[in-house]
Amino acid sequence: MPALGTLVDDFDDGVRDPAKWPGSYGDVTEAGGRARVPCTTDYSAYASAPVYTLAGSQAACRMYAPAAGGAAVEALAEVLVLSSVGGTDAGFSLNAVTGVLHLIARTGYTDPNEVTLPYSPSTHAWVRLRETAGTLAWDTSADGATWTTRRTAPSPAWTADTNLVVILAGHRDSGTGDYCEFDNFNLLRKARLAATERTAPTLTHLARTGPGMSGG
Asked: Which domain of life is it from (predicted)?
């Protein structure tokens, strides 16, 4: 029963890791140190095995939007944690057509309490879904070090299941095919703790929620 935060990938070796992402579908690749997922009228995603729990853990990464590319309704980049029940999931869905970042916790494919944000490629560069002591939180960050909590909700019971999947996904309804990209999955930047620490921030693996994972 591994915590979701134990799944880490920097996507730097140019090859999708079949042990980490065995459920992947579509023509996903690694390029330029990122996971590259087609954003076409087909469905594509990096997808983990169904072996994780979100309880006391997280799913976090750097996310890069696709081009709208003339899509009529949606051109999506998504980071979603899926339960074993279809349409019951939580995470982030970015629509490049509308310029809206959706923070979702769906049951039966709907979320009446969905929170939406006008998407900022800088302010919302990093996204993180985390569960702590019965509370689910959606965080964003400009740099992967300092985080702002954008939504909280009571944790759905399924977040404690031990067969969850995480996907990094792309899809569009129409228009010219493009890519969405993802980087540094569960590899977050250490916040600078003192004014004398002026070197470039380093990356750290945060497997579970702790003091350093609170919203900033």
From this structure: Bacteria
